[in-house]
């Protein structure tokens, strides 16, 4: 009879799968930006992004408001490798006049209790961080804030809805501070579901769902940031408080709700709200049973149709009664006793029937709960793209804990609904209060870490003012390099290149070019056509220069170069032709003419002996002679910056600057002859190779150099030299990052404090990894994969930090480079006496070309620091090789003209 009567409360698996699907759809709705406003399941971001990692430590306070009892806790977390913690708690009553009174009274009461707790635990003299477990739906925009959306359960305090409860608590604490001498700092607002997940997460790293089945019901889980429309950022995960109690408030469950559910809802504090919760949680199950019994009695199905006053009284049957009646092991005695207390006179049949009603009501609760949980688990599994998933659900709540059959039933149904999830249900022993302390502990750890990371990266943040200073200093150094009296000691050497003209389009012929100075050595054959068929054709071959040759003797180096040329000529079948050759040699050379260049000093990765102070053209000629196999007409020695400028100049006559941002960093530009004191003549212009990489070698930018820069410098081939280059170019950026990572690891902020073997290796962190890691399209998981390739075993949080470090280093590089370039364009503008300058910069270099942000930040900085210059950046396609050929062609043309 009862079965037939309560037919609608018995849910088959098909119905549950349907509920599961409905709940899944609701979750998606709640997560979407446009659909959230009308979603019933609010899917609230909690700003809890990390689970405990075991390195938390300290002493924390927590208060827990919103469950059946109000509690204060003290939690000590030990960083002893055993993840131990200590919890002491005290319960306080929640009188009806407080939880249905006004806001100020509520928070005063909370603080009174806390103050009492601190008194008893002797904590009054301490300044402690506090986590606030507040188990009502709150809209958060950060961890320590929560706007109450609505009261639920048995709470209804006036003047709190739509206000920030953390602020109210802080305010109450502030008022108490003076009179009671307590000093606590509210660091986190936590929903009880989150607290439960965190508590269980401390013991089981796999825990990523928190579930409450008590006075109320609710669940939270770790969602991928990229699915959370309401919070900026795509990286990592964040805990979502589903607030699933409101599922069905739009009528989505009306087909499952019975007349009893409707009646119960009408008599509640919040009619029409929390309809799912009202079918599940312990606050309502007793009342549901009462309503059913009442109706059955009235219809004569129970107790001989005799209704007692007690049965007519709201709230007379509570959850504890339902639980007791369902203790089947104890037969019918409990049931009988409870019914007698309600002034009912049950027959044995009545008792069996009532027991059965209780079972149907509480089983439905477990079924519905299981369906929604199954939806969450499925979502988690799909997020992880796993076919099978192992996970842990942290659970708390009186109904789950004390009801004799509830837990078993729930587990069984969940496993039936999601057979591809291996679920561990972990009961939270110490409850949501400890969880709030854990959240606080994690927040505390993260805040402390954040401070340390910010401190480490602060020197990389350059203010506009600092950048202006850099620009001004660069300008001063440029002038020193040009002046006769100061140029000898200048750090920015401003080397004349004897390149005085740009191509005019009449150049033609076949040329050889060499490109030495970066990562690769190349030999090129360049065919230039003039006139209507104006074009440049190139053939090239790349040769490696082994480290032992880069850093061996000069003779070996040049013999190797000639060997490569011989291979190339052979390969192209042009060994007999005595072609004019341009030699791109990207190191500082003092030139006395276009085909003479004395090496001032090696930079970047080169350090061959017996070359400094020698003429590189002579050395090349001698090597060719030594080989005695072919002859070449070496016409020009060219810096790569100049080659780049010339290449772009061939397309755009406005191009008067050449910039390299590759292995090294350097700039050249067209200077008025009258300003170049060390070269005779005042007519026309000549290209100056600034060699600005040496900027700062006199200490003028030491104020912005960090300890990491100094370490990189000391570990380099040329300590003390090229200080600006070492802050701005591809050869060093990765190394700066590595130094920072080592330091952060030493401080215990990364890689669990373990400096891996690979992190110790100089050069392991190449600049191309910066580009990869900083790419916007890259998900965090991929960053982790890159780090893994480097032998660095990183967590999600590690990856975020590494990415930040890379960003700081590359941004500073681009800004410094921009400040230098601003000095040059401003100088040119002033020299021309122009209000505005329109100019093109030819650029080459893999850092500029491939880094996702470098070029943009560089351009923005120039715009900011030289607002009166309109600078166009032109990428040079294969600039240095082609440029050398063009210079050779120009030189050849001018030479021929001269001869004629
Ligand atoms: P050059 O050695 O002539 O300067 P490039 O302009 O090609 O040659 O620069 C090579 C340098 O660029 C490498 O030494 C490295 O530091 C850097 N680099 C290589 N790949 C990348 C990348 N993907 N992103 C940024 N920088 C890179
Ligand atoms: Mg190059």
From TrEMBL:
The pathway that the record names for this protein is: Carbohydrate metabolism; hexose metabolism; Carbohydrate degradation; glycolysis; D-glyceraldehyde 3-phosphate and glycerone phosphate from D-glucose: step 1/4
PROSITE patterns in alphabetical order: HEXOKINASE_1 (PS00378), HEXOKINASE_2 (PS51748)
One GO process term, biological-process aspect = glucose metabolic process
Keywords for this entry?
Acetylation, Allosteric enzyme, ATP-binding, Cytoplasm, Glycolysis, Kinase, Membrane, Mitochondrion, Mitochondrion outer membrane, Nucleotide-binding, Repeat, Transferase
Q: Which Gene3D superfamilies match?
A: 3.30.420.40, 3.40.367.20
| Subcellular location(s) per record | Cytoplasm, Cytosol; Mitochondrion outer membrane
Q: Which reaction does it catalyse?
A: a D-hexose + ATP = a D-hexose 6-phosphate + ADP + H(+); D-glucose + ATP = D-glucose 6-phosphate + ADP + H(+); D-fructose + ATP = D-fructose 6-phosphate + ADP + H(+)
In this protein, which residues make up the domain named Hexokinase N-terminal? Answer: 2-202, 453-650
Q: Name one Pfam family in it.
A: Hexokinase_1
- GO molecular function: any one? D-glucose binding
Topological type in the membrane: Peripheral membrane protein
What GO cellular component entries does it have? cytosol; mitochondrial outer membrane
Query: What CDD domains has UniProt attached to this entry?
Result: ASKHA_NBD_HKDC1_meta_rpt2
Enzyme class per UniProt: transferase
Instruction: Cite the Hexokinase C-terminal domain residue spans from the record.
Output: 209-442, 656-890
Question: What's the Enzyme Commission number for this chain?
Answer: 2.7.1.1
What's the domain of life for this entry?
Eukaryota
Membrane as a keyword of this entry, yes or no, is yes
> Assembly state and interactors?
Monomer. Interacts with TIGAR; the interaction increases hexokinase activity in a hypoxia- and HIF1A-dependent manner.
Role noted for this protein: Catalyzes the phosphorylation of hexose, such as D-glucose and D-fructose, to hexose 6-phosphate (D-glucose 6-phosphate and D-fructose 6-phosphate, respectively). Mediates the initial step of glycolysis by catalyzing phosphorylation of D-glucose to D-glucose 6-phosphate. Plays a key role in maintaining the integrity of the outer mitochondrial membrane by preventing the release of apoptogenic molecules from the intermembrane space and subsequent apoptosis.
In the record, the note on similarity to other proteins reads: Belongs to the hexokinase family.
Q: What is this protein called?
A: Hexokinase-2
